[in-house]
Amino acid sequence: MDYRFSWGPIWDNIDLILYGLGTTIGLSALALVLAVGIGTAVGTAGASRSRSLRALSATYVESMRNVPLLIHMYFWYMALAVVQFPAFTCAVLGLAMYSGAYVAEVVRSGIRSVPNGQMAAALASGLTGLQARLFVVYPQAVKIIAPSFASLCSQLIKDSSLASVIAVAELTYQAGSIEGHTFRTFEVYITISLLYLALVTFVSQTVLFVFGERRRADTRGLADA
Amino acid sequence: MPEVILQNMGFLLAGLRLTLELAIVTALGGTLLGVVAGTLRYLRVPGLSQLSTLYIEFFRGTPLLVVLLITYFAFPALLSYRTTAYQAAMLGFVIFIGAYLAEDIRSGLMSVRRGLIQAGFASGLTRVQVFRFIIFPQAIRRVIPTLFNQYVRLFKFTSVASVIGVHEFTGSALLVNARVFEPLTIILTIAIVYLVICYGISLVGRMLYSHFAVRT
User: Fold this and answer.
1) Residue A202: its chain B contacts at CB < 8 A?
2) ipTM of predicted assembly, 2 dp
3) What does pTM read for this prediction?
4) Chain A contact for B57, CB < 8 A?
5) Do A77 and A163 meet the contact criterion of CB atoms below 8 Å apart?
6) Alpha helix stretches (DSSP H) within A114-137
7) What integer is the mean pLDDT of B38-47?
């Protein structure tokens, strides 16, 4: 091992790295919001009683998640070249459609794990179907799916690195360009790995903290009252 | 079938062959690495256990593309050896998927009930025998669905090897596209091929699971 470490060039390009990190965060956040929207709709359809809705939901999930994310990105960027979406938009759309399928599966399993009686009781007490979902079923489902949702979030952030392939200037892309003009290969890639690791850990812990089960304070039954 | 695809069929099939080769070899290598790292962590072997924890946490937190860039550019620079894109992709996929498989296998090992382990010791088996005949077989059967999810992920992820210049399925499709420029046809075609294969892998996983399921 005669490799001489030199971290100076990394420090000199800290602005590029921070810019890339910002783009990664923005890209992931936008895609996550869209994916949660898609996933909630598709997942609710997948847990519904209507057979055609369930089939529709399953078709979306299987056809989206069985195609590599890279192909999703190329689809928006290259296959729809006539439309000329900006690269950033393509990355957001590709990431959202792909991750939406995973969110849908998690949402579906979350809804199905809430006992039927909850929905029935909500309807019986005069809530509309939408109200019953919003105020009774979803809040309980969210707690159950918090761990899987946290890992989906970290998956999405890591997946966003593929946007570099369609020339979105996020963290991985910036690392490539820094590597290209400083030749500090090892230092650059280790730095961004650790940045991804930190970001992913922070986000998944935050999700668990905000949505996860907390001491079951709000599920106390009559006996504790 | 569209004409572009028919005309370049041989080239695309060669790419698909490389993709399958890459996926199968790295699935085997990754599973081996996963079993070793997961078991070391489960058994809390001093030193080695911490090492596998470090390995698992680091590579589970790093995007696949970055892992490939590390195995293609950073490792050879650091340790001064030469590598081809294909070898680097192999190494990267094994390291990457191994970290996920290790966690799945560990959770499978942990799901084996204590009572069974104690019963094994009580009937005179040694530690190695308890692991070999009681814990491991049940753990593996229980994690078959998760393992196959990871294999599907791995198969999809092989497309990323095209980024470091491996002419597997995606890479060869991109080359064909560069020549004839019919992106919509080409991308939809390879998307369908990936879809069929990935769906097939998950069906095999489901069949194996219902065949080997631990009945309780």
Assistant:
1) none
2) 0.89
3) 0.89
4) yes
5) no
6) 116-124, 129-132
7) 92
